[in-house]
Structures are given as structure tokens and as C-alpha cells.
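Entry:
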Amino acid sequence: MNLPKLDVPGLLRQHGLHPEKSLGQNFLLDESALQQVVNAAEISPEEIVLEIGPGLGSLTRYLAVNARSVVAVELDHNLISPLIQIVSQYPNVQVVEGDILALDPVQLVSQQEYVVVANIPYYITSALIRHLLEARIPPKRLVLTVQQEVARRICALPGEMSLLALSVQIYGLPEIIAHIPASAFYPPPKVDSIVLRIDLFPSPLIPTAQLDVFFQLIKAGFSQKRKTLRNALSGGLRLPPSRVEVLLIEASIDPMRRAETLAIGEWRHLATHFIDQL
């Protein structure tokens, strides 16, 4: 697919604008990288795409020629007018001005199934992913352009698990699809990026009734990473160390292990033992 390349620096100058550092604006320009994002999303002609952070529409145009419709949510008021002009030739694109973290995705797309595609700044990565995964009706998959290190953390295996990895992996399977060099963006960020795809499970790996306990556990477990589970959970949950040790042993988990070594199944098992304690 060959679309005319957008002259983003020129368009910004034309409208008297510049990339806002406070909003983490780095516009993806490279055509091969844009195509990699679209390919990763595997958009069918019948699907609705929720695009977050369209900027000036470089990626929006590629999404529009693949999807039934695209809802593009842009936070920066100054970009709305030029964005609408650029995508005006695509009648299946709707531009929405707003903060996605304050919006209900389901109300934006108005249907059960949709796909999320986003080029998102580092500072909202965790909050945005959780907002989408915990939506009343979550998307069936997410394709995100994120910083390289963030993508690796999300895809971590037991031994290197993190709060972010667990918070994502209970909802879906993350996969690193492609590497995007910093030079593909304007202005170039300080680090390279990754195209990350997350395919959501039909339901979370943790039963809904145990999700609150699960999140309390993992937040406590990772609150003091250098401590053993016994001490980290005791401090984070305000339970006596002796009681925590008993519960860990009952769950067949060594109290001297550390949070990053536990697999999701072990956290799920642990939640069943702690559910009456929290």
C-alpha cells in the first residue's frame, strides 16, 4: 500500500505548531514502520479501530484504508484542526478530541468488538494499558508502539516478572512484533521503540472475584523488590510476618522467594489463600 508521505515537520510549521515535549509527542513518519504497525493489527474490512494519539494522521490514513471505520482520539487541541483536514478524504474516520483515560472506549466505538492501535508516550503507557484492559468491553487486541524497555518488561517471563508484566499478562498474551528505530520518528526520541501486540483472552486468567486480592498481592509483593515475599507481603499488606509465612507455605510457595520469580499460576493460587485475609 503506497500512500503519499506526510510532511509532518512542514505541516507543523504551516500551522505554527511544534512537538510538545510535555505530551511526549514523537510522530511516526517512516512508511515501512507505519506498514508494520498496520500489519501487526491484522485489521479486517469489517473491524472498527480505536486509534489513540493520531497526531497529524500519518498512521490514521493507513488504518482507514484497511478498516470499516476508525475513531481517532487526540488529546492535543492544537492538532485537531490540521488532523481533520488531513483525514477529510477518508469518510470512515471520526476524530474525537479528548483524554482517552477519561473516556469509555465502548462509548467511542459503540460495539462489542474493536481493535486498539496507538503510538503512546512513555509516561501514560501503564495507565493506558490498564484502562483499556479493564474497560467494560475490552478490545480484542491492542497494537502499541512503545519504548523498547517497556515492551520487554511487559513480555517478561518468571524470574524477571514485574508489576506491569503481571497486570498485562493476566488479560492477554503480549508479543514483540517489530523493532522501530528512533530515526523513524519526528522528533527522534532518545530510545528505540517496539511494535507490541497484545491478544486478549476471552476472560482474565484470574477469576473476577479474586482480581482485587490479586492486585493487592502483586502491588505488595513488588513494593520492595529486594525483600523476600514473606517480608514484602507482610509490610505491604500489614499482616504479621508469621501469618504471611503460614499462608505462603499453605500455597506451596517458599516464603524466601522474591516476587519476580512467581508465575501467574502461583499468584492465582496465592490469591485463593489470601482472599479471606484482605
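The longest strand covers residues 172-180.
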